[in-house]
Amino acid sequence: MFIIILVRFIFLKKTFKKALEYYQKGLDIYEEDGDKHGVASGLTGIGPIYSQQGDYDKALSSQKKSLNIYKEINDTLSQSYSLSLIDIASIYANQEKYSKSIEACKKSLK
Question: Which stretches are TPR repeats (predicted)?
């Protein structure tokens, strides 16, 4: 958990390469421990970094993977699940795919 907090600080300082590096280290630890919720949370955090860099394909992939894990562990009511959907909505809006953006926003409200 400390790594995730550290990464959020690094992200706020806009050192995205370093943030991705630490998120990946955190993901590796969660995967080794079999902590699916941790993996999903890490993927949720990685998405905005890719978005900030303009790499919307990787951002979308990261968020979709996190949603699949949340569904797998039956945790679709968590704040992190909603955050992934909101980030997906933002990605689609940046790509001017407004109907998909609205759809993701609506899903986040359920």
Answer: 40-73
Parent domain of 39: 1-109
Q: What is the CATH number of the domain that holds 12?
A: 1.25.40.10
| Tens digit of each residue's pLDDT (9 = 90 or more) over 32-80 | 999 999 999 999 989 988 998 899 999 999 999 999 999 999 998 888 8
Q: How far is CA 97 from CA 2, 58, 91, in A?
A: 36, 16, 9
